[in-house]
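Q: Here's a chain of 311 amino acids. Please give me its 3D structure as tokens.
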Amino acid sequence: MCGIAGLIHRGKSSNVGRELTDMLQSLKHRGPDSTGFALYGNPKSGEHVLRFKVAEQEDMRHGFQIHDQVRERRAEVDRRLDELGARRVSEEEATEYAYRYWISYDGDMKKLADYVEDVEGAEILSIGNALELVKDLGDATVVSGQYGLGEFGGTHAIGHTRMATESDVDIRSAHPYWAYPFNDISVVHNGQLTNYWGFRREMERRGHRFMSNCDSELIAVYLADRMERGEDLEEAMHRSVDELDGVFTYVVATSDKLGMAKDVMAAKPMVLYESDDFVALASEEVAIRSVFPHEIDTYDPYEGEVMVWQS
């Protein structure tokens, strides 16, 4: 019974970090184990934001040895970035095991991502011109405070509150998922895909890699793959409704778009509010009212519906 949420401002930037934090915190009852944010900020020309971690939160309780390993892993990541010619413009230690780098790099991004993730314990959460993906254990207020997301300015964002049912409570199993190694594509999802393994094997044969066994990651990779083959976001989403089996509602974001799709049975909830300059959607209306406490009109999308909005 996870919770998903998304918002987009048309033609302007806003404090999407605070807004999404409020929306996800109101959905805590749907998933108290972990919270994730995919935030789309204001990109800098020629730079990418690299979000990565070198340990799990629970690893840090294991004493001095793990702290030494964390320092060694980060140093090895730095060495490999330097070796590939990725210039580190600036660096930020988000937590003692997670980092935020601005890098300048015009080489093969998949080669960079693969080389970094070959470091033991390292996992790239996202690479993007606009996208910054943050996820960790705890509710939205805890994670947002830990990573300083309350003042994040941008145009749009999506997020997820997770109740662990079939996998571990760890960062790797938390949502959202970035479509590795594609720039700026992320997905949150509520539901279950019944043809997950068949499509995953197809994507792996096409050269894609997966960091988890979560079907939400498959949706992200599936959409990115279709877009790489020439479809626009809306076309790829319509195809996903036809080809992905199961009960699902998902929200996807790219550098300048927010999209929502429901399966043909519409078994998973979604509530939507739309005005001329703002769109908000979530698993429950309470999340939208955390941003708009005054009287508003919301509605439920139809079964099989696909909708896309531009920032």
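Q: Can you summarize the key feature?
A: The mean pLDDT is 91.
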